[in-house]
Amino acid sequence: MNSGTVVAVSRDTTHRFSKINQDTIRLLAGLGVEGDAHLGVTVQHLSRIAQDPTRPNLRQVHLIHAELFDELRPAGYTIAPGDLGENVTTRGIDLLALPVGTRLRLGPEAVVEVTGLRNPCLQIDRFRDGLLKRVVGRDEHGDIVRRCGIMSVVVRGGEVRPDDTVAVELPAAPHRPLETV
């Protein structure tokens, strides 16, 4: 779990569910993805703006593991990078197992800090009917399990491209498990 690879990078200037794949994205420290609708110091997701527009933006960069797409394919869901609204699609790292505060070095310069889990909403079923039940479920103890990626903030800016290395830097123990942000 020490390193992986960037499969794709995506952004969109408007608030749509899916994002458009790019050759490169630029991360801006404390803001997010340059040119993305979710760029900002304060919350940018429309539902969160309606609740409290002054809250800090803990969802600047959304990452999803490509292995999720592999798991969904046999159930009839063909999902491509960017389809679920992520900015960075990775392979080779169990993103959902990372603790809060983990830093991910994306390529030679950029660093993001993991803030929590994405909480998928009903929009995911509008994208593909029945998909929400595939990415949100319950474990053997009855606890909710969310598998639709993680959220992060940009600690150090820089360009990120497909095939860049993703290096994992765990925070000091004790580790806090991810919760929704």
UniProtKB/TrEMBL annotation:
<dbReference type="InterPro" id="IPR005302">
    <property type="entry name" value="MoCF_Sase_C"/>
</dbReference>
<protein>
    <submittedName>
        <fullName>MOSC domain-containing protein</fullName>
    </submittedName>
</protein>
<dbReference type="InterPro" id="IPR052716">
    <property type="entry name" value="MOSC_domain"/>
</dbReference>
<feature type="domain" description="MOSC">
    <location>
        <begin position="20"/>
        <end position="169"/>
    </location>
</feature>
<dbReference type="InterPro" id="IPR011037">
    <property type="entry name" value="Pyrv_Knase-like_insert_dom_sf"/>
</dbReference>
<dbReference type="Pfam" id="PF03473">
    <property type="entry name" value="MOSC"/>
</dbReference>
